[in-house]
Amino acid sequence: MECTAVVPMPLASGPAVRLWGEMLGYGLAIGLSPVHIALLLLLLIGPTPLRRGSFLVGSWLLTSILTVTALLTLGHGMLLTMEMGTNHRTGLDLLAAGGLLALGLRELLIHRMEAEASGWSRRLDAICTLPLVPLLAFSTAVQLVSPDDLFLYAKSAGTLLGAGLDGAAEVAGAACFSLATSLLLLLPLLALLLGRDRVQPVFADVRSWLVVNGNVLVGSVSLLVAAYLGWQGIEGLLAR
Hints:
The chain is mostly helical. The chain is built from nine helices and no strands. It has helices at 14-31, 34-44, 49-77, 87-109, 114-128, 132-145, 147-162, 167-194, 196-239. α2 (34-44) runs antiparallel to α3 and α8 runs antiparallel to α9. The protein is globular.
């Protein structure tokens, strides 16, 4: 496989700012999971909310850390080059853009009847009552089999590989990315600490909104990320 020398990137440079911005954006896009957010909100208005909610968020964060670490290890082992214009980088950008475009259009075009939304709500209610271990297993499985999440995990790992970071900076980048994927779950958990009685009615309202509008939200974000990755892929083709 092709292998080119990579010059380490200064952490305060313009490209570094773009790198951290991309990692934050990819992380937030992954974290925008209506199923997980709605499930967490259900846990936070149920019995022992802090305990069960903390385990769910911790499981999500651990899964993100292990996933991006595995992809980085695989990329280093295969000597993948991820600089702009290389075959690996351009191919990943265009593949991810195409996949996210298809997923986004599917989410926006599928008409969800009100009964279907109610069915999703009932399934979440049933999952919420599971013992902790099966509940966490379900959460991890959904996180790992989601195609849009896998595309973004791969893209994030590829971005770190192409940045030319040293070992410590790459670990810091992976940690920050993993934290970014968890921000939308951490915020409700932290809000619970500020006042359970005040925030639980808000959680219930947000959860109801997500059940009805989650597919539109995910579809819109998928199209935005697909447009950005497609632009990067075209940039890579022109840079050759």
